[in-house]
Design brief:
single chain; about 80 residues; mainly alpha
């Protein structure tokens, strides 16, 4: 409702990757024992990485807009992923 996913565009993708990784870990735990810390850290790392990628993208877009206001040409910024 507050537009958070619009501001952090990679956050939703990171959550989906985390769910996928946790599903794979669940399948692997049928055969092998995986410590709970590893399972938790995988989800935290993927979501954290996507959050930081979104922040980096937002900063790059803000910097590009600042340059574009100084000149009339548009600058294309890659997503950084």
């Amino acid at each position: 409702r507050q537009g958070t996913l619009d501001d952090y565009v990679y956050l939703e993708h990171g959550a989906h990757y985390a769910i996928g990784a946790l599903a794979v870990i669940l399948m692997v735990t049928i055969q092998y024992e995986i410590h709970e810390i590893i399972t938790g850290m995988v989800g935290v790392l993927l979501i954290g990485w996507s959050f930081l990628s979104s922040v980096r993208r937002n900063r790059a877009l803000a910097a590009a807009e600042g340059k574009a206001q100084g000149s009339d040409e548009k600058t294309e910024v890659s997503s950084g992923v």
